[in-house]
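User: Predict IS110 family transposase's structure from this.
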Amino acid sequence: MNAVGIDVSKGKSMVTILRPFGEIVSSPFEIKHTSSDIHSLIKLIHSIEGESRVVMEHTGRYYEALAHQLSAADLFVSAVNPKLVKDFNNDSLRKIKSDKADSVKIARYALDKWQSLEPYSITDELRAQLKVMNRQFHFYVKQKTAMKNNLIGLIDQTYPNANTYFNSPTRSDGSQKWVDFVSTYWHVDCIRKMSLNAFVEHYQNWCKRKKYAFNKSKAEEIYTKTKELVPVFPKNEITKHIIRQAVDQLNSTSVTVETIRTLMNETASKLPEYSIVMQFKGIGPSLGPQLMAEIGDVTRFTHKGALTAFAGVDPGVNESGSYAQKSVPTSKRGSSNLRKTLFQVMDVLIKTMPQDDPVYQFMDRKRTQGKPYYVYMTAGANKFLRIYYGRVKEYLSVLPDPS
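Assistant:
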């Protein structure tokens, strides 16, 4: 038994090799994430007598290249949750945090958990790309939200509440009516300098040019409201530049978001479970690919409980003797991105109210019982994942073998 503990960091790793009863095969040493250093490590591990198992923490993306190379070299590799290693055998009063100490601890963990170590599996390239796109998607959505709030804050200084005039959804090209509106009418004086008829005509031409629906009463309503508004900034070139710059930044990010959204749907459609996943209520071409990206290959989960635990929506347990707590918070130890997507799906179900959907019926029943919002939403997410696991796994089992 040779336990190879690897503490991974960016561009380099610390390696320790131990045997049972504290026998040191190799004291902590550093390797670079280069082909030559990785090849030397593989050669060293193969040269050691007895079975060897390599264990590392799956932290971020740093470990993937090393895990992939070692696994491809016919070595047993296991990537474990850092939380498990952190909580393992903390029997020292001293607080030590170093790469060397961490690699030793990981090697000791490997020896202790030898029989229960799960082998690292190389993720399908398509699924890996979909997951990366999903993380990029959420990153740009956050940027878009920040830029939208920034633009609203600026507009409140020149044209208060202009963002509330329209509630049209974002188009597939990333454009949005209220953003285009404030780009043209960036100050109240852009409208107030015109007569009502002149503005209605100008607004109609603007709608035609931007391909938005024109409503005369809406134009008259906007004109009437504008007469009562009080701007802070004057109508000059500096103010115009500030507003237009914020609009351009928001539009650019919005285009990126919609491009990634479309690409994610195209990529997800190539996965075998796409058709069955898209049949779920509450899921569309946006949330469907996000859900598939975060769950990955459902067949890697041994049972329904493993999937709910991965998402962190599994109910906790608090029992001792004759005491058993009835309502225990969920673990929240799993993927926060998956939980976020699940809550978005539950939100769609709450808003659309599909009466024939078992998940909505379950949530509605919990809500009727007076359960708090987070309780019935989390319970709904748990039930949804259990149904998802059963349906998708059954669907995949009857598909012909692609090989």
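The chain has three domains: 2-120, 130-266, 271-398.
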